[in-house]
Every structure is written in C-alpha cells, then in structure tokens.
Amino acid sequence: MSTHSTIEPRNAEVQRNTAETQIRVRLNLDGSGVAQLATGIGFFDHMLDQIARHGLIDLEIAAQGDLHIDGHHTVEDVGITFGQAMARAVGDKRGLRRYGHAYVPLDEALSRVVVDFSGRPGLHMRVPFKAGMVGALDTQLVYEFFQGFVNHAGVTLHIDNLFGDNAHHQCETVFKAFARALRMALEIDPRAAGVIPSTKGSL
Ligand SMILES: [Mn+2]
Questions:
Q1: What span, in angstroms and rounded, lies between the C-alpha atoms of 186 and 119?
Q2: 193/126 Cα distance (integer angstroms)
Q3: How many CB atoms lie within 10 A of CB 24?
Q4: Coil, helix or strand at residue 124
Q5: Which residues make Cβ contacts (< 8 Å) with residue 198, sequence separation at least 6?
Q6: Cβ distance 48 to 179 under 8 Å?
Q7: Does the predicted model carry a pTM greater than 0.90?
Q8: What's the sign of the alpha-carbon dihedral 88, 16, 175, 160?
Q9: How far is the CA of 172 from the centre of ligand 1 (A)?
Q10: Residue 127: strand, helix, or coil
C-alpha cells in the first residue's frame, strides 16, 4: 500500500474568452492563501479573497468583462472559469475527503455552507440579502457566481444564511463558510490516500 498522500500537484490554469468576458484563473489547492484578484468589481475581489485566505488556496483571477452593461457576465463567468479550474485541479479526486462544511459568523450574521465533490452539479442557496447592492456588486449575482461554479466544478453545494441584517456581513459569511467548507473537502485524507471516495469507484 502506498504511503504517499498525493503525488500530483493540485493546480490548474484556465483561460476562458467570450465576446462578453476574458477571464484567466490560476489556482493551487495546496497553497497558503495568496491572492491576486482583478475583476473590476471591488467588493467581488474582496469576496474572492476570502476563498483564497480561508480556503488556503492560492488564487489568481484576472477578468476583463463588459462592466459598461453591468456585472452579470463578469461575475457569472468568473464562477464558470473558477469551477473549470477546480475540476482540473482535483482530477480524479483520489484521496479527497470529498465532503466539507462550515459555519462562519460575522457579528450579527451567520452562514452555513456544505459541499460535496459529488460529480453532480447542484446548488441549493437560501440567502435573503437585506440590500440589492454591496459596493458595486449586485447581490443577485452571488447566486450566478455559485451556479457557474457548481455547474463546472461538478459539486453539490448548500448555502444557507441563517442570520444577518447587513448585506456586506451576510455575503462575507457566505464566502468565508464556502472557503472553510472547500478547505475541509479538498484535504487529502491520510487514512484513505489513493482511494476514490465513493462506493461506485468513480466520482
Ligand atoms: Mn468585509
């Protein structure tokens, strides 16, 4: 039996270009949380920074989008491209813990995120935002980001904001809990190294 927990470097780079957006994502799942983010939407960069910092993922995202229209295409396509990079980086998911969950508070706000690297896209999100905009980010686009991510990463994702009066706080607890849940799910389980975590034998 192999004692190696993982051999392949778990990183990926994806460039995705459409008539609406040009997006480059580089990530390293075994990083230390170093982020370089430039989406053109300040508060969105602040949220992506949470994924890197609290997920211990090194993350570079550069996006040129049609922000003269609105942020929709940019935020959705960053989710898609991040999801594509995630799928490449996890590979066949050998040794992965697979499931992750976290509760994260920020003052009055509290969110719970549960993730499963199931291979089946599914988003179940209940976040009653108390404001339509946070900075330059339309809070409706948070759903679009996660939908793009799950579709291309092939994960099941449950996101619940349980409490919160301030939309900045609500949003930040969602992204921090997502990051913490990712960190747990993406860890290599030393007791199951080299094993694909499914009785089906593939994910
Ligand atoms: Mn903040």
A1: 14
A2: 34
A3: 17
A4: strand
A5: 98
A6: no
A7: yes
A8: negative
A9: 6
A10: coil
DSSP state of 188: B
Backbone φ and ψ of 8, nearest 5°: -65, 140
Question: Ligand 1: distance of its center to the CA of 136 in Å?
Answer: 13
The CA distances from residue 56 to 43, 46, 51, in Å, are: 20, 15, 8
Query: Which tokens is 194 given?
Result: 């080299």
Return the amino acid letter for 161: N
Residues 157-178: what's their mean pLDDT?
Answer: 98
Separation of CA 195 from chain center: 24
**Residue-wise pLDDT tens digits, 63-108:** 999 999 999 999 999 999 999 999 999 999 999 999 999 999 999 9
Q: How far is the CA of 188 from the centre of ligand 1 (A)?
A: 30
What is the 171 CA–ligand 1 centroid distance (Å)?
9
User: By C-alpha distance, which of 119, 107, 100 is closest to 159?
Assistant: 100
Q: Are 176 and 56 in contact (CB under 8 A)?
A: no
Q: Chain centroid to CA 9: how far? A: 19
CA of 75 to the centre of ligand 1 (A): 18
